[in-house]
Structures
1.
Amino acid sequence: MLLGLALGVCLTGAWLWRSSSRTTATHRVLVVAPESSQQTDVNLGLETLMSDHFEVLAGLTVTHAPSIPSPAELRKLPADLALFRFQGRQEGGKLALTTQWTTAPDLLAGRPWRWDVQPPMDPGQAMETWVARWPLDRRHRIRAELYPRDPGRFWELLRAMAIRDDREATSRLADTQALAEAEPMCATAWATLGDHLYRSLWVDPAQAGIGLNSRTHKAFQRAVDLVPGYPRATFLWSLMLTDTGNQDLALRALDEAMHLRPRVPDLFLGFTYAGRTSGLLAGAHSAMVRREALLAPFSAASTWTVETTNLYLGDWAAFEEDLRQTAALRVDAGVLFYQGYLALLKGDRKTALARMEAAGTAQGFSPFQDLSRVYRALLEGRKEDGLAELRRIDEVRGKLRIPDGELTFKQAEAYSLLGDGGRAVDCATRAFVQGFSCARWYESSPFLETMRAHPRWPTLRRNIRERQAVLEGTFPPASFEP
């Protein structure tokens, strides 16, 4: 009796929330993560799965927070934002799901969250019930599935989506592949397989088997075929395509997704990355500004990359602010490297050395660790050691199946700083072949002065400008806008 009354109150609250929310359309959702004691694989995977539902079915701007914002932060939140939190629990093969909704004005006024407590159900039924009750307009219909119909494979998918470590994702590839093949109409299974394959490109491509690039491409393609404009799959696919020098295809996939769901910030992050590495700096900057507007008042710092668009535009002050925002989110080898890189650009060799030393010993796995040791040798006057380390990096990176032309370009700058113009132009040519064709930075980077004195530089410069001109004709700045 009491349980029935409680469920009735929850359903009434959900209905009242749905009715009252019609006055102000919800375009954004802030997902507040479960408390650390509840951070199980179930909830980690559910957070990603639910975010996919918000983006795919409602086209919302989704942001995440580890806790409820402070009153001062709540006052800054836009009127079209709802706060959402959840807790999932596996009971046998069933999913018990509790969800809560509110708004910033309601929290500030001391009103309680609107609760919806679902009893344990088969996972598919639980997800359908959740979507049926949410206080949002469902703007998109899809023919495929966002979760497996088989209850056992539902939990397998959540465990796969909960993986945050690249090496674990690589070691579990066989299981993730089998899951996708067993659930051929489940778009999230294919997106998760593509995600894990993409990570393995960086970590251990040999372990992933033959045809890794093709398998990664096909997994993301399958996810997007099932759900046109699927934001998470399209974003990750665009990163993989950009890293392998296929910016043209990346920009086309992003364009299709953006026009279907123009409020998803990660799509504009993909535009910025593909655009800046192609030299389409006006479009990249436009996409970056659009993403910042969607995420405001939250920080737009990316968990994926260090934003270098302002660097290539020559706005060092703006680039320094981008670095500051990223460092507030995380401090890893990439952030430390670019802090040292900027200090060196500004002539502050002492700070540059300290940052490169820290980057070289930072935890985790990053190619910036090796590259920072090259710059450290340069700053310490050990040019021969620096050149030897660069040649070692060349040998290792030559075996990788995801070249990342932007990183190769940083190696070219290092060769040039170390006085080897011939190897610098060789490396810069490889960066160009790998897709990095930002003509402005090739021509203006202070670190490439030695290379630009080399007799082969004019030919490389002409090739870069020709490719950039083609891309500029295909993707004018307006194509980066909704």
2.
Amino acid sequence: MNTAEQDLRLEMLNSLLTTPHRKLEQVAETHQLMVEVDPLFYGHLAVWYQRYGDVRDHKEVFVSHLLTSGMADHRGAGFVLLQGLPPYQVARVIDFMKQKLGKVPRSTRTAVRRYLTRREQNPKQFDRAALRARKAIKHLYATLHIKPGARADAILFKNDPPDGSLAKVLKQIANAPHPSEQARLIVEFKIPYAIATGSIQQLTPTVLAALIHNMSPQEVINHLKSLKARGAMDHAEMKQLIDDKLGKAQTDTRISAFKAQVAAETVDVDGETTAKLEKVTDKQVKRRGTIGKSTALLVDKSGSMSSAIEVGKRLAAMISGISQADLFVYAFDTFPYPVQSQGSDLSDWERAFKLIKAGGGTSLGCALEVMCQRQQKVDQIILVTDEGENTTPYFAETYQRYCRAFGLLPNVVIVRVGHAYKLVENQLRQQQAPVETFTFQGDYYALPNLVPLLTRPSRLELLMEIMETPLPIRH
């Protein structure tokens, strides 16, 4: 593999650490370059990411490029993957293809027609989709000039839903004279929180409890701020319902690993609920795999490196929770500070990093120097930094001494934060040291994407795993 090809593949993996928040153009250029330069790898990466990735924006861009690819295998895989997306994501895929890629091939129109027809053929599925994503489904019919069936047309466009449809039930709920009747219909027909709150003028405790009963664990986390504002956290029975949902969120495979932590930080809830949200994050992170290599996590705490400390504590929680080998954690400026936690939960690492404050000069090699003196041998070094250093010992020189002392060649993963340089990366490459870099510019939702890169024995094995992921075949 020549250097340019290797760097492009790693740049593609690096881009997966960003969270565009629907600004898909921020990642489109890298996707476009990869699909042109290495379409074979791109196709397998697209399918692999649908299984293991966390960021929905990337999934949409992957499917878009597969559907517009000049390779029949790509278009077939995109056709199949599109069928598994929720309606709002299908609509985003089509809009991205139109606005950024400039085309919607006939095969894509066929894929969307099949997507909509299959849902029309299952009234329960169609009603549920139309209730949650009415605007997106209407958009798909209209923008691709697909004629809806009579029942779909009545629900979506004529605002005359037939008896027995969920749209009709929603009208009945809005017009029901008593909260008890509204609550009964909400529970019986599993009306979503976001839909009901837009249709019911007054949410009584009875109705609100019914809505919480219907919510999935992820929906509770997503709407926690709204629930608190409506008084749910102050009502004992509703608070218990919420706590029960948060308990189930720990093992729910559909939970975003860091959304619970973000909710804990942004919603003013009591200590008990905060602890439950942190536990959700901890459990979800630990589902990501296991690390069999001894690892050093070195976190830059020099001036302006507050962001590195925040990333570092979350990486420490992820790694410690899934590591089956030694883990050494240091924060450093011109002097290394060993960081030890009493447990592997994020809350434990929050406490361990509590007194670590950004400030001072920068010696990227000082922590590795101490590890050498203490005979702390590792197979992998994760360096969270902007790569700027102004004080000895310097990292590249210390790394050489470390390798000679132990007869090892640890892989170095540089997680760039802030206004990053390429100083250390370039020095290590000149030494032909195994180094990979990942620029963290997104938020913490994307950080778990690093885990698959750390759990494989080598980067080559990860690339081979991606290449061995089969493309689904259209039938």
